[in-house]
Specification:
CATH architecture: 3-Layer(aba) Sandwich
CATH topology: Aminopeptidase
Shape: globular
Strand content: 35-45%
Distance between the termini: 25 Å
CATH superfamily: Gcn5-related N-acetyltransferase (GNAT)
Bound molecules: coenzyme A
Largest sheet: 7 strands, mixed
Number of strands: 7
Number of helices: 4
Helix content: 25-40%
Radius of gyration: 15 Å
Oligomer: single chain
């Protein structure tokens, strides 16, 4: 499986085309315009014909916020999301000061929560009744140190 890291530049329209061909339009238009603004990173798993997984993050001075992580249903439970997160970690380890990875998840999304637990993330905050269905949002964090 190939992994590619995409930031702003000529790779963005190519990645956008590929993502919409594979998964349909939502929510890639937003991802494309965010990438072109800078401070975002898209990590794709797959080849030029088929995207198997994607991780989209907003980079900031503390580290990054994970906006979106998704793997194709037919490719799940094969450590693909774990490998996408590992690529993000390697990217952040090249920065010469500690970085924090943050994300927010619906309390009922148990598969995602197990993924984040197994990746060494910890719940640092709970936003009570954050979602429309009255569920809490859990804020996870992991600290990454320069290698
Ligand atoms: C959550 C998601 C990204 C996991 O992707 P994945 O490629 O299957 O994850 P991995 O194979 O790397 O799983 C790593 C670990 O996470 C846990 N896990 C992942 N999916 C799980 C599931 N359905 N049930 C229980 N545990 C699960 C397991 O501990 C797993 O390790 P194991 O398979 O050795 O037991 C995927 O299910 C997905 O795209 N879901 C829809 C989008 C989503 O909810 N994204 C997160 C919120 S934005």
């Amino acid at each position: 499986m190939e992994f590619s890291l995409i930031q702003r530049g000529e790779d963005v329209p190519k990645a956008f085309r590929l993502l919409t061909e594979t998964w349909g339009h939502w929510p890639w238009r937003e991802v494309e315009s965010s990438l072109q603004q800078g401070s975002y990173l898209l990590i794709l798993a797959g080849d030029a014909k088929n995207i198997a997984g994607a991780l989209f993050v907003n980079l900031h001075h503390q580290g990054c916020d994970i906006i979106y992580i998704f793997t194709q249903p037919s490719k799940r439970r094969a450590k693909l999301a774990t490998t996408l997160l590992a690529h993000l970690e390697v990217y952040l380890k090249h920065i010469k000061r500690p970085q924090k990875i943050f994300l927010e998840v619906h309390e009922a999304n148990l598969s995602a929560r197990k993924l984040y637990d197994s990746f060494g993330m910890h719940v640092i905050n709970v936003r009570k009744k954050y979602y429309d269905d009255g569920a809490d949002a859990l804020i996870y964090m992991k600290e990454v140190f320069p290698s």
